[in-house]
Structures are given as C-alpha cells and as structure tokens.
Amino acid sequence: MIELTALPAAADTSTSSIPRPDQTIVMLDDDLGDAATNSVLDLDPEYAYALRGDPIKNARQLISVCRVSGQRREEFKNTIIEGNEAGSFGEGVELPKSQLLRDVDTRWSSTFLMIDRLLELYPAVQNFMKKPNYEELACHLLSEKELDVLVDIRGFLLIPHRVQELLSADQTPTASMTLPAYEELLELLKLARDKYSKIVHGIEASISVLEQYLRYTRQTRVYALAMVINPSVKLKWLEKNWTAEEVTAAQAWMREAMLDYRKREREDANAAASAPASTSSTPQAPSSPTHLPGDNHCAYTTPEPSQALPGSRTSRSLRAGFESLQDLRRELSTSSVSTSGTSDSNAGTNLASTSRQDESEEEREARLDAEDAAIVDAELTGYIEEGLSSQDVDLLTYWDTHSKTFPDLFRVALDILPVPASSVASERVFSSSKETDTLRRTGLDAAMMEILQVLKYAILKESRELLNTYTAAPPPPPDVENELRRDEMVTPAEASSLVHPGRLETLLQLVHKVHGDSD
User: How many domains does the chain have?
Assistant: First the structure.
C-alpha cells in the first residue's frame, strides 16, 4: 500500500521506478518546481508564500514546543479542560482531552494524523500560548494562510488514509480489495483536483505514481486471482474496469492455477501407488488439507443452492470502509446466475480410473491432461455462473462450506486468502515482537518466540471478542434477581446479566444464598 504523506514531488515515469506496495513515497520537493507550474497560485500570492514556507515543518516545530516536556503536556491538557468549562472554544464546542501528535516515518498516515489533530486542537494551542509562562512561544503560532494550506493538505491526505485503513485489516482477507480500492483512490484524487486546486501539482504527481503502480498490478496474477476467488466479486469488477484481453488473461491465470493443483495431486497419487508394498501401510502425509473432499474430490460437483452466509464483523467493516469512500466521492463531486446444467459427480473419477493397455505414456498423459482441463473448465464455469454473494460475505466461511463444491478453486483460495493487501499486519507483528524480546529476555530462541507471539495474538483476539460480547449484550430483565432466587441456582448467562451492569454485590449475595454460605 502506497502511503501518500504530503505533497509529492515529480515522479519518475520509468518502469523501474514503480514503488513496492510497502514503499513510502517521499514528498515535498525542496524547490517546489511543480508548484511553479500551478497557475492557480498566482491568484493568491499569500497562499503561495505560505506553501513555499513549508507549513508542515512549521507545524512540527509548534507541536514540539507544546509537548517538549511532561509539564507542558499536563499544562496543555489543563488548558483544554479549562476552555471546555469556560466555553472559550465556541458555543457548544468541546475539544477532546488529547495531546498533539508527532509524525513518525515508520507509522502509516502519521503526517495526516498529526495535521488532523493539530487543526482540531488549534484553539487550545492558541489559549496555551497566551498563558504567562508561554508567551515567548507565541512566535511558533501559524498564520491564517498556513492554516489554510494545512486544511487543504489534510483534505488531500484524508483520501489515501481512508484507503489505507480499508486495506490494513488483519482478521479478514483483503487482497481481493486491493485493485478496487486503488482504482477508487485514483478516481477520488482526480475529483480532488477541483476542490484543492491550489495544491493540484501535488495531487497530479500522486496520480502519476498511482497510475504507474496500477499498470504494474494488472500484470500481477495474485491480485486477479484474489478477486476471482472472492464470491462477491468474481469477474464482475474485472469486466467493468479491464479490457476484454485482460479479463481473458485473468481467467487463463485462474485456469492454469487450478490445473497445476490437479496435476500435482495426480503425480502425488501415482507416487503413492508405485511405492513398495512394505511401505503401503504407512500413513502418508496428505498432499492437500485434510478437510478436502474424499475419493471423488477431483471431480466438479453441481453446486447446491446458495445460502446466505453470515458476514463477520471484519467483513462488515470492509464494506463500511468502501461505503465511506463512496461518501467521500459524493462530497468531492459536489464540490467539483443461478447455476445452469448439472455435472456427473463421478465423471472425473470414472475417467481417471480408465486405463488403456495399448496407449503410450505420452498418450496417457495427454488424455489425463485433457480430462483435467474439462473438469477444471466445468468447475470454473459453474462457480462463475453461480452468481455473486452479498458484499459482506465472510470469505473464510464461504470457502470452508464450498470446499467440496469447488475443490480446485478451494486449493487456490488456500494460497491466496492469506496474502495481505498491505504490510501493516506484518509490521504490527514486528512491533509486538519487540515488546516480547526485551533486554531481560534475550535468551529466547526462535521456536519459543513463535509460541509466545501466537499465544499473545490468540489471547488478544479472545479479549476483543469478549469485549464485543459484553458491549453488545442486551440490558438485563428487571426480574433477573427473582428468577435466580426461584431457581435456586446461578447459571453463567444469569451471572453475566448481573456482571454487565455492575451489580456485583447482588451477584455475590445470591451466590452465597444458593450455596448456603453465611454473610
């Protein structure tokens, strides 16, 4: 995922300069050569002067002097509290009791977050600078034009920030969302040129780099395969946004991947069959996951009528993320089949078991390849003709329930679903590992480090799910206490209904009474 952190310099148009997905684009050309070509700035020389003065650098200096020590941070927090109580920030305006943020090179969207927090708390910054002990710091305050520039830069950076958040999920597959998200980002940036015309030179440079990257991704198979195995997308998005030749190529990539899995499975089966009899009773490691279909799993079976699968919380979050991008698009614009036919489920098995004594090895291999191709084509056609699932479908649940219906596609899904759309998840692992491998734990070996990381992730995930359960719990019925006394027992569900609203004393009294304990 490309992080657009400030106004970009002119981008190199050579193919070799295409950035990696996790590469950050360096912004803000020192001589502002691109800004000189922006004729809109000629109409507002004060804005152009403020832009040339590097307002982002000035914002960093202002934030540094406000939070240089713990005493100043505490005093700044008190300034916010006093201003909220006195209503000095405006009628009905109450600022959050937060601290200013610094941007960090290793943190995604850190410049956007820094500017966003500064603009939000700037009335408190002004009041802070008016205090007797800090009047000499008032020279660091920003001018009105510098604030105008920061407002425009914030609006510009909000667009890639929204896309980056969408693709940074670590509990649901996101690779299939990469190309639609990038295309949406490109369209939003083009719309932003009219709204933020004074920094259009930076937006144009971002568009140029993004278009190069999109041309590169169309030649990368993993993105196309990820979209095809998404039952809510399949070929629909590709047919709408790609040329007919590119869509045909994507289908051919999927077909090749499925055939490769079938050929490898056939080779493994032949190797197992030709093994010595003395080792035939030895359990063999499965060449594919154990929950794959059994004897006739090589054959395509007619899909059962599709049923609505429940969408997970993370899949619904992805959908909400795209909806937020659509809201942003509208804002910028204002300012500027059911399966047909059936297949014989035993066809593949019957063909695979056919043997001809008079055919050569080459003829037999060609025949088996033709049979594999027919089965793969039938499975892929049935999958596409099945129709699209809902947008909030959970991909893991879908492929777990369709592993026998589309066995070869399922094998492709096992390889593609773990591919992340951005490096955020892996960077989180490195940050978490640093907290585990402290100076007092330098003797940890690789195996123990892996165990601790997996265990920590599992505990955190369980804690989040438990927290969501409690926050989503319905209010307890008013007669819970009477029901407990009548039944003379405390069930986990009933105990939870008392713990959730904080009625711990009532719960303890009932437990003591049920068990006959003395007070």
Answer: 3
Q: Establish if 322 belongs to a structural domain.
A: yes
Query: According to the 3-state scheme, what is the secondary structure of 163-183?
Result: HHHHCCCCCCCCHHHHHHHHH
Q: pLDDT (tens digit, 9 = 90+) per residue, 431-449? A: 888 888 888 888 888 888 8
Q: How far apart are CA 19 and CA 39, in angstroms?
A: 29
Q: Per residue in 257-275, is it b (16+ CB within 10 Å) or e — as a string?
A: bbbebbeebbeeeeeeeee
Structure confidence at residue 255 as a pLDDT band (50, 70, 90) = very high
Whether residue 243 sits in one domain with residue 378: yes
pTM tops 0.85: no
What was the pLDDT predicted at 363? 84
Instruction: Specify whether 450 is located in the same domain as 406.
Output: no
Sign of the Cα torsion 206, 203, 153, 168 reads negative
Burial category of 407 from C-beta neighbours within 10 Å (exposed 0-12, middle 13-18, buried 19 and up)? buried
DSSP category for residue 282: S
Same structural domain, 121 and 225:
no
Q: What is the pLDDT of residues 319-353, one digit of tens each?
A: 666 667 766 776 776 665 343 444 444 444 444 44
Closest CA to 305 of 277, 338, 335, 283: 338
CA 483 to chain centre: 45
Angle between helix axes 110-129 and 144-166 (nearest 10 degrees) is 140
177 and 145 fall within a common domain: no
Residue-level pLDDT at 105: 81
Query: Which residue range is the domain that position 383 belongs to?
Result: 168-271+315-328+368-420
320 and 210, same domain (yes or no): yes
* Separation CA 395–CA 100 (nearest Å): 39
